[in-house]
Write a structure and sequence with these properties.
Length: about 260
């Protein structure tokens, strides 16, 4: 299970201000803390980055790379900022993300090929989020077809079925579960999957965040989820993930866990 730390996000007040001030310390402290808590990769979310986007993204990437060498997931809707970030990544990165829209695919796939990057493919289009698992799979096929067209190995793809907040779209929780099962049938070896886990509790009381995300993560892992953009500093979440890996036999020797 790949855990991509979600905390370096322009929407967080502390990070947004640090980006504005070009203050490295809060960003580097959070990068180190997430890795120490168990993150295997770090998401760097610069948002729209409409002003000085390329410069901001390169500064963020270099700032994080000064303190850790884990894989970076670059998250911005600004294509120029995305490529600028990819240019300075020391290791192959993850592009977060593309949708099933043709224009988006034509922008992102050449970057993925040029920089040997993995791609998160959101199973949605400009028409909105898919209504059920079948619609998610149809868009997944479009994304896979585009990868072949642009000569990007399908092994670099992470399909994201798009979690919606349980408080407003309760019926979608199981559609995501079903979509992940169906994604695995699209290719041999199976296509990898990823979710933005925190979306599940958006709009709910804070006291419910940990139990909602940890329970849902275990449910998704049982049907084959490969990665989650999540909060690695949530101890319950990380303990649930490790316990699920134990029961799934992903951990060869369980003695150290049981002790």
């Amino acid at each position: 299970m790949l855990i991509i730390g979600e905390k370096i996000n322009v929407m967080l007040k502390q990070i947004g201000q640090a980006m504005k001030d070009r203050d490295k310390k809060p960003i580097q402290d959070l990068a180190v803390s997430q890795v120490q808590a168990g993150a295997n990769a770090l998401d760097i979310n610069a948002g729209p980055a409409t002003k000085n986007g390329p410069e901001i993204m390169q500064w963020l990437v270099n700032t994080v790379q000064e303190v850790t060498d884990v894989t970076l997931s670059l998250d911005t809707t600004n294509a120029e900022a995305m490529e600028a970030g990819l240019q300075v990544c020391k290791n192959p990165a993850i592009i977060n993300s593309t949708s099933g829209d043709r224009a988006k695919l034509e922008t992102i796939m050449p970057m993925a090929k040029k920089y040997d990057a993995d791609v998160i493919g959101l199973t949605m289009t400009s028409a909105g989020v898919s209504r059920d698992a079948n619609e998610r799979v149809a868009i997944a096929v479009d994304i896979m077809t585009a990868m072949a067209e642009f000569d990007v190995p399908v092994e670099r793809l992470y399909l994201d079925p798009l979690i919606l907040p349980v408080g407003v779209a309760q019926n979608q929780a199981m559609e995501v579960v079903e979509a992940i099962k169906m994604f695995r049938q699209l290719n041999d070896p199976p296509i990898k999957s990823v979710v933005g886990l925190s979306n599940v509790y958006n709009g709910t009381p804070e006291r419910l965040h940990s139990i909602l995300s940890s329970t849902y993560l275990v449910m998704l892992m049982t049907v084959g989820l490969d990665a989650a953009i999540a909060d690695p500093m949530d101890q319950r979440l990380m303990e649930s993930m490790k316990t699920a890996r134990l029961f799934k036999n992903d951990i060869l020797y369980c003695d150290s866990y049981l002790e």
